[in-house]
Amino acid sequence: MTTNRDRQRAAARARLEREMADRAERSRHRRRRNTTIAVGAGSLVVLLGAAWLVYALTGNDKKATEAGANPSASATPAACTWLPLVDPSASPKPEIPKEVKDVGTPPTSGEPRTGTQLMTLDTSVGKIKIEMDTAHAPCAAASFTYLASKQFFDGSKCHRLVTSGIYVLQCGDPSATGMGGPTYRYAEENLPTGRRPAYTEGMVAIAKTQDPSSSGSQFFIVYKDIESLQADYTVLGKVTEGLDLVKKVAEAGAVPDANSQSEGDGAPKTEVKINTMTISPAQG
User: Mean pLDDT throughout 11-21?
Assistant: First the structure.
C-alpha cells in the first residue's frame, strides 16, 4: 500500500522533473536567442510566415582585415532581378498580408553602378546620414532609392533594438511589426567576407531570410562591433552622421518583449520614427 509519505516523495520527484524540464527548455530558448535575432519582416516567398532573421553564429578565427577596409565584394548580379514575394503561378494565389506595403517594383535596368549615394533619414531623434555603396551594392541601392521615392519609409518606426550580443537598431518595416516589407525581394551582394568581425560599428546592412535572394526593405544599423555574425547580409553602406544618436537610443535600452527569451531585445524605449527618407543621385 502506498503511504502518504511515498505519495509526497513521488509528487516531489515529479515536481523536480518538471522544473528540470522547464529549465532545459528555457536554456534551449536562450541559446537559440543568442544565435538568432530577427531584424526583418515576414516572407511569403516559399513558406508563409517565414521570418527574416540575422543569424549570429560564431565565426571562424580568421584575422580581421584592417578596421577601415571596405567589405569584400560578393558577386554582384549583372542585372537586378525583383522576385515576387508571392508566387504568381501558385493556385490558389496566396494573399499578401496586411503588413506588406505594395508600391510596385523598381525599374529592371538603368540603375547606377558606380560611386556612392547619400541616404538621409530625418528622424524623431535627429538626422542620420548613410553613405550607400552604389558601386558594390547597386541592386540594394536601387531598391532603397525606389522605395524612398514612393515614401515607403516615411512615417515608419525603427521597431527593434538589440543591446546584448548583437548591437543593432532595425528599421525599414512600415508596419513596425517585424512582418512588413515590399512585395518583392532580391539577391544579396557586397557581403563582408574575409573580415573579422564581419559587421563593425557604423555599418548598415539588409535583413534577409535563411534563403538566398531574400533581401528586402528592412535594414539594421550596427552601433557596436559584432563578433558573432556571419557575413551573409548585404552591406548597404555606412553611417557618416548621426551614429551618436543611435548610440543614445541604445543606451536608453529596449522595452522587454514578452516573446523574447533574452534581455535587451525589443522595441527601443526611445522611439525612433523616420519622418522622411531621401536619397541623392549617385556621385563618383
Answer: 57
Longest dimension (CA), the chain: 89
Write the pLDDT tens digit of every residue in 39-71.
333 333 332 333 344 433 222 333 333 333 345
H/E segment holding residue 235 = strand 235-241
Can you give the pLDDT at residue 61?
30
Provide φ and ψ at 148, rounded to 5°: -65, -35
Global pTM value: 0.77
Instruction: Note whether 44 and 28 are within 8 A (CB).
Output: no
Q: Residue 201 in contact with residue 81, Cβ under 8 Å?
A: no
Torsions phi, psi for 12 (to 5 deg): -65, -40
For residue 255, count CB atoms less than 10 angstroms from its CB and return exposed for 0-12, middle for 13-18, buried for 19 or more.
exposed
β-pairing, 166-171 vs 184-185, is: unpaired
Picking from 85, 83, 145, the residue whose alpha carbon sits closest to that of residue 110 is 145
Q: How high is the mean pLDDT of the chain?
A: 81
Q: State the DSSP string of 134-183.
A: TTT-HHHHHHHHHHHHTTSSTTEE--EEEEESEEEEEE--TTSSSS-B-S
At 36, list the grid cell. Answer: 538568432
